[in-house]
Design brief:
178 residues; alpha+beta; 8 strands; 34% strand
Length: 178
Amino acid sequence: MSSKTRVYSQYGAVPFRIKRSGDIEIMLITSRDTGRWIVPKGWPISKLKPRQVAAQEAWEEAGLRGKIVGKAPLGHYLYSKAMEDEPPLTCKLTLFALQVSRQRKSWPEKGQRKTAWFDVATAAATVREPELAAIIAGVPRMVESQRPVSVGQKTDDPAEPIGLDVDRLVAKEKARQR
């Protein structure tokens, strides 16, 4: 990449859940253009912190509610984003762990994408980007170090309950579109 290449920021979520057995699963979604398996991601949103953007994208693209675990991202990587009728953009995707509490029955992009839960190894093997695969493969280490709580359990974790923010943001966005 040349020093003149502009790098655009994007933020995304690596949605995960912990089954009763203790096994971790990762939700992947399909892209709208090629149908390849990816994680929810999107452009910065004014007045939202990057981790809030990640939670918002998980809601819009997969109907997920949950909590961003910790304030630090899981990682980031550069990728080339194809654009219709324009040259591709170089994007830096910063990813946050989203512990999923539920998937709603309806969400803004339902019908435009498929969603599926995968065990960690299968999710890492399913995505095309090796950097994303490595970040997904690291989720069990993050879970062990963060020890996220069960949904509904009280916690001292400073991460705010993003699901409440997402509900507020969705209502605000609907009001703005009227």
